[in-house]
Amino acid sequence: MNSVLKLKPVFKEIVWGGNRLKDDYGFESDLNNIAEAWMLCARNDGDNIIVNGEFAGMSFSEFISNNKTLLGKKGQSYEEFPLLIKFIDAKADLSVQVHPDDEYARIHENSYGKTEAWYILDCDEGAELIYGFNKELTPDEFRKSIEDNTFLDYVNKVKVKKGDVFFISAGTLHAIGSGILLAEVQQNCNTTYRVYDYNRMVNGKPRELHVEKALDVTNTVPPTRNGDADGEPEVFENATHQALCSCDFFKMETIDVKGEHTILIDDESFASVLVLEGNGTLTDETQSMNVSAGDSFFIPANCGDITFNGEFKALISTL
Ligand SMILES: [Zn+2]
Predict the structure, then answer these.
(1) How far is the CA of 228 from the centre of ligand 1 (A)?
(2) Do 218 and 173 form a contact (C-beta atoms < 8 A)?
(3) How far is the CA of 2 from the centre of ligand 1 (A)?
(4) 194 annotated active-site
(5) What does each of the 319 residues of the chain score in pLDDT, given as a tens digit?
(6) What topology does CATH give the domain 5-217?
(7) Superfamily of domain 234-318
(8) Separation of 61 CA from ligand 1 center, angstroms?
(9) Exactly one of 20, 194, 207, 225 is catalytic; which is it?
């Protein structure tokens, strides 16, 4: 029961997607323009299938609903699986958007809010994203900038590089720019208020904007960080851990493994292990598995020692 699960991703074709997810990770799909690969998901509109072990072939949501203790102490209070983790390949700019917090979402959308974080996997030279504002705006100034199309003058455009991390708490304006490949960890919710869509037409019409709700929830105070991780790396004999960000909803770190390195998964939370580069093996009490870039593993809470071996980089997310 308490064994590591390997999960099969769910692919989403969206107009702004590219082909890097197939090219870089060898994902197989008949879809074109794969914008998103959902690496950890238990939703009606996307549900991983278990690849290994005695539960092979079962959907991840079914497995979880039968085994809630495997989410750990922090996970058991959630009605739905708490996280959604994706790879995103933005060949074109995404719309500028904002998400509500839990309280606003509960009252207005009957859903959870959404805090998310991005870890930049790769990007084209000069690639940029939008992260908050570059000056604090009043609600009237915010509204006017959309009406008179000066909005982009006030957003904080950040040139990105591989390894940058952006923590996007609910209420933070954000947009992924073209030429960026990233991993996203988020609360399991899709309530999005679109603020600006570059005056683009989709099927001859502009996409709907949600300006009034965005005005309600957006924090216009400029962010103080622009891509830096949480503190210094922690160096072990055969691995380096780098904390990326930490909030009430999730924690993220990267691990660079060179050789054999063991981590402990206790009863607080499950862990998601998303392999970003390289290859090696992952061993728990019951099995040993090969790992390579693009693999996604669910490690149940209280799984104990997990031993990595090889030369690879992984993103580890917990509650
Ligand atoms: Zn978002």
Answers:
(1) 19
(2) yes
(3) 33
(4) yes
(5) 589 999 999 999 998 999 999 999 999 999 988 999 999 999 999 999 999 999 999 999 999 999 999 999 999 989 899 999 999 999 999 999 999 999 999 999 998 999 999 999 999 999 999 999 999 999 999 999 999 999 999 999 999 999 999 999 999 999 999 999 999 999 999 899 999 999 888 889 999 999 999 999 999 999 998 899 999 999 999 999 999 999 999 999 999 999 999 999 999 999 999 999 999 999 999 999 999 999 999 999 999 999 999 999 999 999 9
(6) Jelly Rolls (2.60.120)
(7) Jelly Rolls (2.60.120.10)
(8) 23
(9) 194
